[in-house]
Fold this sequence. Notes:
Structural class of chain A: mainly alpha
Largest interface: A-B, 50 and 50 residues
Order of helices and strands of chain A: HHEHHEEHH
Distance between the termini of chain A: 48 Å
Oligomer: homodimer
Number of strands of chain A: 3
Radius of gyration of chain A: 18 Å
Low-confidence stretches of chain A: none
Helix content of chain A: 55-70%
Strand content of chain A: 5-15%
Amino acid sequence: xxxxxxxxxxxxMIIRDTLEVIQGKWRIPIIIALTYGEKRFxxxxxxxxxxxxxxxxxxxxxxxxxxxxxxxLHDTMPISVEYSLTPLGVSMTEMLDEIFNWGVHFxxxxxxxxxxxxxxxx
Amino acid sequence: xxxxxxxxxxxxMIIRDTLEVIQGKWRIPIIIALTYGEKRFxxxxxxxxxxxxxxxxxxxxxxxxxxxxxxxLHDTMPISVEYSLTPLGVSMTEMLDEIFNWGVHFxxxxxxxxxxxxxxxx
DNA sequence: GATAGTAATTACCTATAAGTAAGTAGTTAC
DNA sequence: GTAACTACTTACTTATAGGTAATTACTATC
Lengths: 122, 122
C-alpha cells in the first residue's frame, strides 16, 4: 500500500511537469496545427481563428523555449517565418492522438445524454 | 489542401472541448490519483500534498459535474465519502498513460540537455 | 502615394485560477 | 470537556491567463 502510494506520487510529479508544458488554452491547438506540416504565423492564425496575434506570438515563443517547435527564418523576399515541430514536438503525436480520441468519445457521451452546445463552428 | 484544412479545424474543435474538461493544475492529478482505486477526500489530499482543501473540493465538484467521477456517501458511523471514476473517467486511462509516457520522455530529454530543477520531491 | 498584407510587439485591462486563512459541523478518543 | 480528526465551506487576496486595441516595420499592389 505504501509502495503503491509512492508510485502514485512519483507519477503525479511527472504529470505536473508535463502539464506545465501543455497547459493553457492555446498550446495544444498550436502543436496540433503544426502536426499538419510546417506553417507560417498567418496560417496558424487562420486555423485557430479566434487566437489573437499577441497570444499566438507569446505561446509560439514558450513552445520554442520548451524545444517543442522551431522557428525558421527564410531569407526570401519578403522574408517569411516558418514554424515546425522538433523531434520532441513530433514525439507528442501519440499523446495528442489519445487526447483527441478521448475527446471524440466524450463528445459522443455528452451529446447523447444532454444536447448542450459544445463548440459548433467549423 | 482545403479538405486537409477543414479536418484540421474540426480536430481543433474537438480538442478545445476536451481541454475545458481537463484544464487546470489539479484535475488530471486528481483523476490519476483515483485510477489507483476509490479514495476518500483526505486520501487524495495526502497523495497531492500541496492541494488546498478548497481547490480539492472545487475540482472534485467540477469533475463530478462532467461525469468523470462519482461521489458516494457511505452511511457508516462516522459517515465517509468516497470518490471513484465513472466509466467515462476510466475511459481516460489510455490518454493519461500517453500523457505520462510523454512526460517521462520529456523529462529524460530535458534532464540530459539542461540539468534544471524540475520537481524533485517525492 | 495610398491601401493592404505579413509578422509581429506593446500597453493596458479583465477574467479566471489558485492560494491563504479561518470557520463549521459532526465524531471519536482521552 | 477538550483536543483531534474528517470533510468540507466561506471570505478574501494574489497571481496568471487571456483579451483588446493600437502601433511598428517592411513589402507589394493599385
